[in-house]
Specification:
291 residues; 4 domains; four-stranded antiparallel β-sheet; three-stranded antiparallel β-sheet; 35% helix; 26% strand; GIY-YIG nuclease family protein
């Protein structure tokens, strides 16, 4: 047992207990926790030995700070461990990623929960998620038209979320499928209130995923009127805008005032026109019901 080994071990936070196994290994006792572990002599003199008990303690503290439970280290990769998430699922993650989650610099996603969310998104649209994109694009999935013709189709997940797609086999073109006229109310950051008149096959998707640039902007539907076809909806909407702009040119709002809050270049009016716009939509709905 060389004296300089003991001196080196002491400077690195350990005491040498004895030689073990063979002529290449030592038993080291940690100054911090008193845990004894086996270490190669070469590791002691050329690097910083790691106390397994202290390392495990750090992993467990990092896991708790990240909202996880450390289960065990990955025997196949020393930089990875298995964790239990708050949802109950088991995750395999790199130790550095968990430290970042604990520090709040990144987020953690459970693959099992995320898969369930994507499956629910598809079911709401009448589809079933079948698998990943065969072309390897992480933004696309393969879906089955479960409530329709049963065809397999490659669809962007964002489009599945917003409903902005149609079945390539049995889907109707937008001009032939049902649509809606709508009136929406917006309150800008400066407090000004607007009313928007428009049409869409899916008004909710239009509002939540297209129009709102500022997710905190107050907004609500004032009226939604079903139309038999998209072609009828756009024709009726254009006629309404012609009437409004002709009768109330001063009520047309300058797009510059809502450029960073609403993603549209026109079709917004001062809220003072709300009663008239709702009355026009009432008339259209009554005529459609009488037809």
């Amino acid at each position: 047992m060389h004296a300089h080994w003991q001196a080196t071990a002491n400077t690195k936070g350990f005491d040498i207990i004895k030689r073990i196994r063979d002529r290449y290994h030592l038993a080291l006792r940690c100054h911090a926790c008193a845990h004894v572990h086996a270490s190669r002599i070469y590791t002691l003199v050329s690097a910083q030995p790691q106390c397994p008990a202290c390392l495990l303690g750090r992993l467990e503290r990092d896991a708790r700070a990240a909202g996880l439970t450390h289960l065990r280290r990955d025997p196949a990769h020393r930089h990875y461990s298995f964790y239990r998430a708050a949802c109950g699922h088991q995750l395999r993650r790199q130790h550095e990623i968990i430290r970042r989650v604990a520090a709040g610099t990144t987020e953690l996603r459970c693959e099992s929960c995320h898969a369930a969310i994507e499956a629910a998104e598809a079911r709401r649209r009448g589809w079933m998620q079948t698998g990943p994109d065969p072309e390897g694009d992480p933004n696309y999935r393969i879906y089955t038209h479960a409530d329709g013709c049963g065809v397999l189709q490659r669809i962007a997940r964002a489009n599945m979320q917003t409903g902005r797609f149609t079945c390539a086999t049995c889907g109707e073109a937008w001009v032939a499928s049902g649509s809606f006229l709508y009136a929406m109310a917006f309150t800008l950051a400066n407090g000004r209130e607007l009313v928007k008149l428009g049409y869409s096959r899916d008004p909710t998707s239009r509002l939540l995923h297209q129009l709102r640039m500022d997710r905190d902007i107050p907004c609500e539907f004032l009226r939604v009127v079903p139309m038999a076809t998209g072609q009828l909806a756009i024709r009726t909407e254009k006629a309404l805008h012609v009437r409004l702009r002709h009768a109330h040119p001063d009520a047309v709002v300058d797009p510059a005032s809502y450029r960073d809050q609403i993603r549209v270049r026109s079709e917004n009016y001062d809220a003072a026109l709300t009663p008239q716009i709702l009355s026009m939509l009432d008339d259209i709905e009554k005529k459609a019901a009488a037809a």
